[in-house]
Amino acid sequence: MEPGLRRLPLSGAVNFRDLGGYETVDGRRLRWGRVFRSDSLAELGDADLALLQSLGLRTVCDLRGEPEREHKPNRPLGATVTTHAIGFMPHGGEELLAGARDGSIDPSEIEVRVQDIYRRFVIEQSASFARLLRLIADADSLPLVFHCTSGRDRTGFATAMLLSALGVPRTTIEADYRLSNDYRRDLTFQVGGIVAPEVMAALTQAHPSYLTAALTTIDQHHGSAERYLREALGLDDTTRARLEALLLE
User: Fold this and answer.
1) What is residue 42's three-state secondary structure?
2) Strand-strand pairing, 35-38 and 144-147
3) Separation CA 117–CA 157 (nearest Å)
4) What is the SS3 string spanning 113-177?
5) 148, 160, 213, 233: which one is catalytic?
6) Within 10 A of 167 (CB to CB), how many other CB atoms are there?
7) Helices 154-165 & 170-178, crossing angle to 10 degrees?
8) What is the pTM of this model?
């Protein structure tokens, strides 16, 4: 596939995106075809598999929790692709889905709860995101795709941290996060039942306040994204140098 295509035209994954092309504060750019972000890979068609095989993928990092992986197993991408199950179910995620399903939660409450989920990414789930960065910094892992169910929350925060580590400005990071609004995955299979359209819309939106909640929590607990990357995610100078050498041009 030619470089420069942000979203890959897959029928079974609507939010599969190349992180190439983003410019850093010092004028470098991320290489195309090195790292991808995505929603679930469980429903890929045969044509999708052929397209992904053409990328030369070596690694899949699954940020979903075990129940999600068991409910919707990823389609295998080939014998040469290694999958790392390094994910988790967000705190309160099951209760959030149950509330949407039984109608006991409205869109404004969804926003409050998802903001809390993002805060907990910072406080409680650093180990998963640290492991992802270490895998990306390994040349033998690339090309690599990391994903969750919708490609918005766990994947969105992970992307923000990776781009921060590479020196991509916050305005670009926020714009990449908002792109998930253009490629929303239907979560009916996960929620179950009949859900009001406005509730489903709230469940699938990449609201700017969500990422802001995480970034504010980083500042409150660590003082800056730089210190969070170093102190909580273990991004020392050697690892950062490897990331830059592998992903920037």
Assistant:
1) coil
2) parallel
3) 11
4) HHHHHHHHHHHHCHHHHHHHHHHHCCHHHCCEEEECCCCCCHHHHHHHHHHHHCCCCHHHHHHHH
5) 148
6) 17
7) 160
8) 0.94
Q: Examine the residue annotation and report whether 148 is marked as an active-site residue of this protein.
A: yes
Q: Nearest Cα to 176, choosing from 192, 193, 194, 158?
A: 158
* Burial of 214 from C-beta contacts in 10 A (0-12 / 13-18 / 19+): buried
Task: Please state, in angstroms and rounded to a whole number, the distance separating the CA atoms of residues 221 and 218.
Answer: 5
If DSSP codes are grouped into helix, strand and coil, which group holds residue 83?
Answer: strand
User: d(Cα 30, Cα 139) in Å, to the nearest integer?
Assistant: 15
Which segments of 55-186 are extended strands (E)?
59-62, 82-85, 144-147
Q: Which two tokens stand for residue 212?
A: 């802001």
| Cα separation, 76 vs 147, whole angstroms | 14
- Tell me the per-residue pLDDT of 172-222, one tens digit each, with 9 for 90 and over: 999 999 999 999 877 666 666 667 778 777 778 899 999 999 999 999 999
Cα–Cα distance, 29 to 37 (Å, whole number): 17
Tokens 């910094």, located at residue: 137
Pairing of β 35-38 and β 17-18: antiparallel
Question: Are the CB atoms for 184 and 14 separated by under 8 Å?
Answer: yes
Task: Convert the pLDDT of each residue in 33-62 to its tens digit.
Answer: 999 999 999 999 999 999 999 999 999 999
